[in-house]
Amino acid sequence: MKKKRLVVPHRHMFGPGPSNVPPRILEAGAKPVIGHMHPETFEIMSDIKSGIQYMFQTQNRTTLAVSGTGHTAMECAIFNTVEPGESVLVAVNGIWGERAFDMAERIGARVNTIVAPPGSYVTNREIERALSEHRPVLFFLAHGESSTGVLHPLDGIGELCHKYNCLFLVDSVASIGGAPLYMDQQGIDILYTGSQKVLNAPPGTAPISFSERACQKVFSRTIKPVSFFLDLSWLANYWGCDDKPARIYHHTGPVTAFYSLRESLAVLADEGLEKSWERHQKVAEYFHAGLESMGLKLFVKEKRARLPTVTTIVAPPGYDWKEITAYIMKTHNLEISGGLGSSAGLVFRVGLMGCNSSKANADMVLAALKDALKHCHRSKM
Ligand code: PMP
Protein backbone atom coordinates (compact mmCIF):
# COMPACT_ATOMS: atom_id res chain seq x y z
CA MET A 1 0.00 0.00 0.00
CA LYS A 2 1.54 3.29 -1.13
CA LYS A 3 1.41 6.09 1.40
CA LYS A 4 1.07 8.91 -1.12
CA ARG A 5 -2.27 10.73 -1.25
CA LEU A 6 -4.85 9.34 -3.63
CA VAL A 7 -4.94 10.85 -7.10
CA VAL A 8 -7.82 10.16 -9.51
CA PRO A 9 -7.90 11.60 -13.04
CA HIS A 10 -10.62 13.86 -14.39
CA ARG A 11 -12.20 12.07 -17.31
CA HIS A 12 -15.09 12.59 -19.72
CA MET A 13 -17.48 9.83 -18.67
CA PHE A 14 -19.46 9.30 -21.88
CA GLY A 15 -19.97 5.55 -21.63
CA PRO A 16 -23.22 3.95 -20.44
CA GLY A 17 -22.40 4.85 -16.82
CA PRO A 18 -21.24 6.07 -14.42
CA SER A 19 -21.57 9.63 -15.70
CA ASN A 20 -19.67 12.67 -14.48
CA VAL A 21 -20.61 14.03 -11.07
CA PRO A 22 -20.91 17.84 -11.06
CA PRO A 23 -19.35 19.89 -8.20
CA ARG A 24 -22.64 20.56 -6.35
CA ILE A 25 -23.29 16.81 -5.99
CA LEU A 26 -19.63 15.94 -5.26
CA GLU A 27 -19.53 18.58 -2.53
CA ALA A 28 -22.72 17.26 -0.96
CA GLY A 29 -21.08 13.82 -0.68
CA ALA A 30 -18.04 15.34 1.06
CA LYS A 31 -20.06 16.68 4.02
CA PRO A 32 -19.44 15.22 7.50
CA VAL A 33 -20.68 11.77 8.37
CA ILE A 34 -23.50 11.78 10.91
CA GLY A 35 -25.47 8.83 12.27
CA HIS A 36 -27.71 6.82 9.99
CA MET A 37 -30.48 7.11 12.64
CA HIS A 38 -30.01 10.80 13.46
CA PRO A 39 -33.00 13.08 12.90
CA GLU A 40 -31.07 15.12 10.30
CA THR A 41 -30.45 11.92 8.32
CA PHE A 42 -34.15 11.03 8.51
CA GLU A 43 -34.89 14.49 7.11
CA ILE A 44 -32.47 13.89 4.23
CA MET A 45 -34.13 10.50 3.63
CA SER A 46 -37.50 12.22 3.57
CA ASP A 47 -36.19 14.68 0.92
CA ILE A 48 -34.91 11.71 -1.07
CA LYS A 49 -38.29 10.04 -0.85
CA SER A 50 -40.13 13.08 -2.21
CA GLY A 51 -37.43 13.58 -4.86
CA ILE A 52 -37.93 10.00 -6.05
CA GLN A 53 -41.72 10.40 -6.03
CA TYR A 54 -41.31 13.39 -8.34
CA MET A 55 -38.74 11.68 -10.59
CA PHE A 56 -40.92 8.55 -10.87
CA GLN A 57 -44.17 10.55 -11.09
CA THR A 58 -45.77 8.54 -8.30
CA GLN A 59 -47.64 9.05 -5.05
CA ASN A 60 -46.52 5.65 -3.70
CA ARG A 61 -45.86 5.70 -0.01
CA THR A 62 -43.39 2.81 -0.27
CA THR A 63 -40.70 4.79 -2.06
CA LEU A 64 -37.09 4.63 -0.88
CA ALA A 65 -33.47 4.14 -1.93
CA VAL A 66 -31.79 0.76 -1.57
CA SER A 67 -28.19 0.83 -0.29
CA GLY A 68 -26.47 -0.63 -3.33
CA THR A 69 -26.37 -0.31 -7.11
CA GLY A 70 -29.04 -1.00 -9.73
CA HIS A 71 -28.57 -4.76 -9.34
CA THR A 72 -29.48 -4.48 -5.66
CA ALA A 73 -32.75 -2.79 -6.57
CA MET A 74 -33.45 -5.46 -9.21
CA GLU A 75 -33.03 -8.16 -6.59
CA CYS A 76 -35.07 -6.16 -4.08
CA ALA A 77 -37.95 -5.97 -6.59
CA ILE A 78 -37.84 -9.64 -7.59
CA PHE A 79 -36.96 -11.23 -4.23
CA ASN A 80 -39.81 -9.44 -2.43
CA THR A 81 -42.59 -9.88 -4.99
CA VAL A 82 -41.98 -13.49 -6.05
CA GLU A 83 -42.22 -16.68 -4.00
CA PRO A 84 -40.63 -20.00 -5.01
CA GLY A 85 -42.70 -21.89 -7.57
CA GLU A 86 -44.52 -18.79 -8.83
CA SER A 87 -44.57 -17.87 -12.50
CA VAL A 88 -42.54 -14.90 -13.77
CA LEU A 89 -42.48 -13.45 -17.28
CA VAL A 90 -39.47 -11.54 -18.62
CA ALA A 91 -39.08 -9.49 -21.81
CA VAL A 92 -35.58 -10.19 -23.10
CA ASN A 93 -34.21 -7.74 -25.68
CA GLY A 94 -30.75 -7.40 -24.16
CA ILE A 95 -28.74 -8.18 -21.07
CA TRP A 96 -31.12 -6.74 -18.45
CA GLY A 97 -33.90 -9.19 -19.26
CA GLU A 98 -31.30 -11.98 -19.10
CA ARG A 99 -30.20 -10.84 -15.65
CA ALA A 100 -33.80 -10.55 -14.38
CA PHE A 101 -34.37 -14.10 -15.65
CA ASP A 102 -31.31 -15.32 -13.74
CA MET A 103 -32.39 -13.61 -10.50
CA ALA A 104 -35.94 -14.98 -10.64
CA GLU A 105 -34.64 -18.46 -11.41
CA ARG A 106 -32.29 -18.35 -8.40
CA ILE A 107 -35.25 -18.01 -6.02
CA GLY A 108 -37.04 -20.97 -7.58
CA ALA A 109 -39.53 -19.13 -9.78
CA ARG A 110 -40.82 -20.69 -13.00
CA VAL A 111 -39.53 -18.19 -15.54
CA ASN A 112 -40.73 -17.70 -19.11
CA THR A 113 -39.42 -15.19 -21.62
CA ILE A 114 -40.61 -13.19 -24.58
CA VAL A 115 -37.55 -12.59 -26.72
CA ALA A 116 -36.97 -9.76 -29.18
CA PRO A 117 -33.86 -9.43 -31.35
CA PRO A 118 -31.16 -7.00 -30.11
CA GLY A 119 -32.09 -3.47 -31.19
CA SER A 120 -35.80 -4.25 -31.05
CA TYR A 121 -38.53 -4.69 -28.38
CA VAL A 122 -41.56 -6.84 -27.60
CA THR A 123 -45.06 -5.81 -28.71
CA ASN A 124 -48.17 -5.49 -26.54
CA ARG A 125 -49.76 -8.29 -28.54
CA GLU A 126 -46.86 -10.64 -27.69
CA ILE A 127 -47.06 -9.57 -24.07
CA GLU A 128 -50.80 -10.27 -23.83
CA ARG A 129 -50.38 -13.68 -25.45
CA ALA A 130 -47.64 -14.63 -22.96
CA LEU A 131 -49.58 -13.24 -19.97
CA SER A 132 -52.61 -15.34 -20.83
CA GLU A 133 -50.46 -18.44 -21.46
CA HIS A 134 -48.12 -18.31 -18.45
CA ARG A 135 -50.28 -16.41 -15.89
CA PRO A 136 -47.23 -14.82 -14.20
CA VAL A 137 -47.32 -12.92 -10.90
CA LEU A 138 -44.67 -10.53 -12.24
CA PHE A 139 -43.72 -9.19 -15.66
CA PHE A 140 -40.30 -7.52 -16.13
CA LEU A 141 -39.12 -5.20 -18.84
CA ALA A 142 -36.27 -2.70 -19.19
CA HIS A 143 -37.50 0.76 -20.22
CA GLY A 144 -33.97 1.71 -21.29
CA GLU A 145 -32.09 -1.39 -22.50
CA SER A 146 -28.61 0.10 -22.22
CA SER A 147 -26.89 -2.90 -23.82
CA THR A 148 -28.68 -2.36 -27.15
CA GLY A 149 -29.78 1.29 -26.92
CA VAL A 150 -33.52 0.60 -27.04
CA LEU A 151 -36.21 2.70 -25.37
CA HIS A 152 -39.08 0.27 -24.76
CA PRO A 153 -42.61 1.65 -25.27
CA LEU A 154 -44.62 1.41 -22.02
CA ASP A 155 -48.14 2.47 -22.92
CA GLY A 156 -50.91 -0.06 -22.37
CA ILE A 157 -48.66 -2.67 -20.72
CA GLY A 158 -49.68 -1.83 -17.14
CA GLU A 159 -53.36 -2.33 -18.05
CA LEU A 160 -52.57 -5.65 -19.71
CA CYS A 161 -50.66 -6.87 -16.66
CA HIS A 162 -53.48 -5.90 -14.32
CA LYS A 163 -56.08 -7.57 -16.55
CA TYR A 164 -54.17 -10.82 -15.90
CA ASN A 165 -53.56 -10.08 -12.22
CA CYS A 166 -49.84 -9.61 -12.74
CA LEU A 167 -47.48 -6.98 -11.30
CA PHE A 168 -45.62 -4.78 -13.77
CA LEU A 169 -41.89 -4.32 -12.95
CA VAL A 170 -39.87 -1.77 -14.92
CA ASP A 171 -36.10 -1.18 -14.94
CA SER A 172 -35.43 2.52 -15.54
CA VAL A 173 -31.74 2.56 -14.57
CA ALA A 174 -30.65 3.94 -17.95
CA SER A 175 -33.73 5.98 -18.81
CA ILE A 176 -35.18 7.80 -15.80
CA GLY A 177 -34.91 11.57 -16.06
CA GLY A 178 -33.86 11.25 -19.72
CA ALA A 179 -37.10 9.96 -21.25
CA PRO A 180 -40.77 10.38 -20.26
CA LEU A 181 -42.09 7.90 -17.71
CA TYR A 182 -45.17 8.23 -15.48
CA MET A 183 -45.20 5.44 -12.90
CA ASP A 184 -48.77 5.84 -11.62
CA GLN A 185 -50.37 6.80 -14.92
CA GLN A 186 -48.67 3.95 -16.76
CA GLY A 187 -49.68 1.35 -14.18
CA ILE A 188 -46.15 0.42 -13.16
CA ASP A 189 -46.14 -1.53 -9.88
CA ILE A 190 -42.44 -1.64 -9.13
CA LEU A 191 -39.94 0.81 -10.58
CA TYR A 192 -36.25 1.17 -9.81
CA THR A 193 -33.24 3.08 -11.06
CA GLY A 194 -29.62 3.81 -10.18
CA SER A 195 -27.86 6.95 -9.00
CA GLN A 196 -25.00 7.05 -11.49
CA LYS A 197 -26.63 7.79 -14.83
CA VAL A 198 -28.95 10.76 -15.51
CA LEU A 199 -28.89 11.67 -11.80
CA ASN A 200 -25.09 12.21 -11.95
CA ALA A 201 -24.56 10.97 -8.39
CA PRO A 202 -21.85 8.43 -7.56
CA PRO A 203 -22.87 4.76 -7.89
CA GLY A 204 -24.15 3.09 -4.73
CA THR A 205 -27.79 4.04 -4.11
CA ALA A 206 -30.80 2.80 -6.03
CA PRO A 207 -34.23 4.49 -5.89
CA ILE A 208 -37.18 2.07 -5.88
CA SER A 209 -40.94 2.38 -5.45
CA PHE A 210 -43.76 -0.13 -4.88
CA SER A 211 -47.45 0.45 -5.69
CA GLU A 212 -50.22 -0.48 -3.23
CA ARG A 213 -50.93 -3.53 -5.38
CA ALA A 214 -47.27 -4.59 -5.16
CA CYS A 215 -47.22 -4.01 -1.38
CA GLN A 216 -50.30 -6.18 -0.92
CA LYS A 217 -48.53 -9.04 -2.66
CA VAL A 218 -45.28 -8.50 -0.76
CA PHE A 219 -46.88 -8.17 2.66
CA SER A 220 -49.12 -11.22 2.26
CA ARG A 221 -46.26 -13.60 1.42
CA THR A 222 -46.40 -17.05 2.96
CA ILE A 223 -42.62 -17.30 3.39
CA LYS A 224 -40.03 -14.63 4.09
CA PRO A 225 -38.01 -13.24 1.18
CA VAL A 226 -34.67 -15.00 0.75
CA SER A 227 -32.67 -11.85 1.55
CA PHE A 228 -32.71 -10.20 4.99
CA PHE A 229 -30.86 -7.16 3.64
CA LEU A 230 -33.44 -6.57 0.91
CA ASP A 231 -36.57 -7.50 2.90
CA LEU A 232 -39.07 -4.75 2.06
CA SER A 233 -40.74 -4.80 5.48
CA TRP A 234 -37.39 -3.90 7.07
CA LEU A 235 -36.50 -1.33 4.39
CA ALA A 236 -39.94 0.29 4.51
CA ASN A 237 -39.55 0.73 8.26
CA TYR A 238 -36.04 2.19 7.94
CA TRP A 239 -37.35 4.66 5.38
CA GLY A 240 -40.40 5.64 7.46
CA CYS A 241 -42.87 4.16 4.96
CA ASP A 242 -44.87 2.07 7.45
CA ASP A 243 -47.19 2.76 10.41
CA LYS A 244 -44.76 1.60 13.10
CA PRO A 245 -44.13 4.24 15.77
CA ALA A 246 -40.34 3.98 15.53
CA ARG A 247 -37.63 3.10 13.06
CA ILE A 248 -35.60 0.06 14.00
CA TYR A 249 -31.94 -0.43 13.10
CA HIS A 250 -31.69 -2.62 10.00
CA HIS A 251 -28.36 -1.69 8.39
CA THR A 252 -26.03 1.30 8.46
CA GLY A 253 -27.30 3.49 5.64
CA PRO A 254 -24.50 4.96 3.48
CA VAL A 255 -25.14 8.49 4.72
CA THR A 256 -22.72 10.35 2.45
CA ALA A 257 -24.16 8.51 -0.56
CA PHE A 258 -27.59 9.69 0.64
CA TYR A 259 -26.32 13.31 0.67
CA SER A 260 -25.23 13.02 -2.97
CA LEU A 261 -28.45 11.31 -3.99
CA ARG A 262 -30.50 14.00 -2.23
CA GLU A 263 -28.61 16.73 -4.05
CA SER A 264 -28.87 15.00 -7.42
CA LEU A 265 -32.65 14.73 -7.03
CA ALA A 266 -32.76 18.45 -6.12
CA VAL A 267 -30.78 19.28 -9.30
CA LEU A 268 -33.25 17.29 -11.41
CA ALA A 269 -36.22 18.98 -9.72
CA ASP A 270 -34.59 22.41 -10.23
CA GLU A 271 -34.39 21.83 -13.97
CA GLY A 272 -37.79 20.11 -14.12
CA LEU A 273 -38.46 16.67 -15.54
CA GLU A 274 -40.05 17.83 -18.81
CA LYS A 275 -37.11 20.14 -19.52
CA SER A 276 -34.66 17.35 -18.80
CA TRP A 277 -36.52 14.89 -21.08
CA GLU A 278 -36.59 17.52 -23.84
CA ARG A 279 -32.88 18.33 -23.47
CA HIS A 280 -31.87 14.66 -23.66
CA GLN A 281 -34.06 14.12 -26.72
CA LYS A 282 -32.70 17.19 -28.55
CA VAL A 283 -29.07 16.38 -27.80
CA ALA A 284 -29.59 12.74 -28.83
CA GLU A 285 -31.12 13.78 -32.16
CA TYR A 286 -28.27 16.23 -32.76
CA PHE A 287 -25.71 13.53 -31.91
CA HIS A 288 -27.43 10.92 -34.11
CA ALA A 289 -27.51 13.33 -37.07
CA GLY A 290 -23.78 14.01 -36.58
CA LEU A 291 -22.98 10.29 -36.51
CA GLU A 292 -24.96 9.66 -39.68
CA SER A 293 -23.30 12.55 -41.47
CA MET A 294 -19.94 10.88 -40.68
CA GLY A 295 -21.21 7.76 -42.40
CA LEU A 296 -21.76 5.81 -39.18
CA LYS A 297 -24.92 3.78 -38.67
CA LEU A 298 -27.22 3.66 -35.67
CA PHE A 299 -27.90 0.20 -34.27
CA VAL A 300 -31.57 0.88 -33.47
CA LYS A 301 -33.39 1.34 -36.75
CA GLU A 302 -36.71 2.70 -35.43
CA LYS A 303 -36.19 6.36 -34.47
CA ARG A 304 -38.84 6.34 -31.73
CA ALA A 305 -37.16 3.35 -30.07
CA ARG A 306 -33.77 5.05 -29.71
CA LEU A 307 -32.80 5.62 -26.12
CA PRO A 308 -31.98 9.35 -25.72
CA THR A 309 -29.45 8.62 -22.96
CA VAL A 310 -27.37 5.78 -24.40
CA THR A 311 -26.69 5.61 -28.14
CA THR A 312 -25.61 2.40 -29.84
CA ILE A 313 -23.52 2.87 -32.99
CA VAL A 314 -22.87 -0.02 -35.37
CA ALA A 315 -19.14 -0.82 -35.10
CA PRO A 316 -17.72 0.17 -38.50
CA PRO A 317 -16.53 -2.87 -40.47
CA GLY A 318 -12.78 -3.43 -40.77
CA TYR A 319 -11.91 -1.81 -37.43
CA ASP A 320 -11.11 -3.41 -34.10
CA TRP A 321 -13.62 -1.77 -31.71
CA LYS A 322 -11.30 -2.25 -28.75
CA GLU A 323 -8.55 -0.30 -30.49
CA ILE A 324 -10.98 2.57 -31.10
CA THR A 325 -12.24 2.81 -27.51
CA ALA A 326 -8.67 2.54 -26.20
CA TYR A 327 -7.44 5.22 -28.64
CA ILE A 328 -10.24 7.60 -27.61
CA MET A 329 -9.50 7.02 -23.94
CA LYS A 330 -5.78 7.60 -24.39
CA THR A 331 -5.94 10.52 -26.80
CA HIS A 332 -9.09 12.31 -25.71
CA ASN A 333 -9.36 11.22 -22.06
CA LEU A 334 -12.89 10.19 -22.88
CA GLU A 335 -14.75 6.98 -22.16
CA ILE A 336 -17.05 5.37 -24.68
CA SER A 337 -17.65 1.64 -24.49
CA GLY A 338 -18.20 -1.44 -26.60
CA GLY A 339 -21.30 -3.63 -26.59
CA LEU A 340 -22.55 -5.88 -23.80
CA GLY A 341 -24.14 -9.34 -23.97
CA SER A 342 -25.87 -9.79 -27.33
CA SER A 343 -24.46 -6.50 -28.65
CA ALA A 344 -20.81 -7.34 -27.73
CA GLY A 345 -18.53 -6.74 -30.70
CA LEU A 346 -21.37 -5.20 -32.71
CA VAL A 347 -21.62 -1.67 -31.32
CA PHE A 348 -20.11 1.29 -29.54
CA ARG A 349 -22.16 2.70 -26.70
CA VAL A 350 -22.11 6.40 -25.92
CA GLY A 351 -23.93 7.78 -22.88
CA LEU A 352 -24.74 11.50 -22.65
CA MET A 353 -26.63 11.61 -19.38
CA GLY A 354 -27.73 14.34 -17.00
CA CYS A 355 -25.20 17.19 -16.99
CA ASN A 356 -23.29 15.41 -19.76
CA SER A 357 -26.19 15.75 -22.18
CA SER A 358 -25.16 18.83 -24.18
CA LYS A 359 -24.42 19.64 -27.81
CA ALA A 360 -20.85 20.58 -26.85
CA ASN A 361 -20.27 17.09 -25.43
CA ALA A 362 -21.90 15.48 -28.47
CA ASP A 363 -19.45 17.47 -30.63
CA MET A 364 -16.57 16.28 -28.47
CA VAL A 365 -17.54 12.62 -29.03
CA LEU A 366 -18.04 13.17 -32.76
CA ALA A 367 -14.58 14.74 -33.05
CA ALA A 368 -12.99 11.92 -31.04
CA LEU A 369 -14.65 9.28 -33.23
CA LYS A 370 -13.57 11.08 -36.40
CA ASP A 371 -10.01 11.22 -35.13
CA ALA A 372 -10.05 7.54 -34.09
CA LEU A 373 -11.38 6.38 -37.46
CA LYS A 374 -8.56 8.29 -39.13
CA HIS A 375 -5.80 6.95 -36.90
CA CYS A 376 -6.84 3.41 -36.00
CA HIS A 377 -5.89 0.43 -38.07
CA ARG A 378 -8.37 -0.56 -40.80
CA SER A 379 -8.05 -4.02 -42.29
CA LYS A 380 -8.33 -4.42 -46.05
CA MET A 381 -11.56 -6.26 -46.72
N1 PMP B 1 -30.30 -1.96 -15.58
C1 PMP B 1 -29.84 -1.18 -16.57
C2 PMP B 1 -30.75 -0.82 -17.70
C3 PMP B 1 -28.53 -0.69 -16.54
O1 PMP B 1 -28.09 0.08 -17.54
C4 PMP B 1 -27.70 -1.03 -15.44
C5 PMP B 1 -26.28 -0.50 -15.34
N2 PMP B 1 -25.56 -0.51 -16.51
C6 PMP B 1 -28.23 -1.86 -14.44
C7 PMP B 1 -29.53 -2.29 -14.53
C8 PMP B 1 -27.41 -2.30 -13.28
O2 PMP B 1 -27.00 -1.25 -12.51
P1 PMP B 1 -25.67 -1.31 -11.60
O3 PMP B 1 -24.50 -1.48 -12.51
O4 PMP B 1 -25.74 0.01 -10.92
O5 PMP B 1 -25.82 -2.47 -10.67
What does this structure look like?
There is one protein chain. This protein is of the alpha/beta class and 381 residues long. The chain folds into two domains: 23-269, Type I PLP-dependent aspartate aminotransferase-like (Major domain) (Aspartate Aminotransferase, domain 2, 3-Layer(aba) Sandwich); 273-375, Alpha-Beta Complex (Aspartate Aminotransferase, domain 1). Helix content is 39%, strand content 15%. It contains twelve helices and 14 strands. The protein has helices at 23-29, 39-56, 70-81, 95-106, 124-134, 157-163, 212-219, 232-238, 255-271, 273-293, 321-332, 359-375, and strands at residues 12-13, 62-67, 87-92, 110-115, 138-142, 144-145, 150-151, 167-171, 190-192, 205-210, 310-314, 334-335, 337-338, 347-351. The strands form four sheets. Strands 2-10-9-8-5-3-4 form a seven-stranded mixed beta sheet, sandwiched between helices. A three-stranded antiparallel beta sheet has the order 11-14-13, with helices on one face. α1 (23-29) packs antiparallel against α9 (255-271). The N and C termini lie far apart (49 Å). The structure holds 4'-deoxy-4'-aminopyridoxal-5'-phosphate (PMP). 4'-deoxy-4'-aminopyridoxal-5'-phosphate (PMP) binds at residues 16-17, 69-71, 96, 142, 144, 146, 171, 173-174, 194, 203. 4'-deoxy-4'-aminopyridoxal-5'-phosphate is lined by residues 16-17, 69-71, 96, 142, 144, 146, 171, 173-174, 194, 203. Belongs to the class-V pyridoxal-phosphate-dependent aminotransferase family. Keywords: Pyridoxal phosphate.
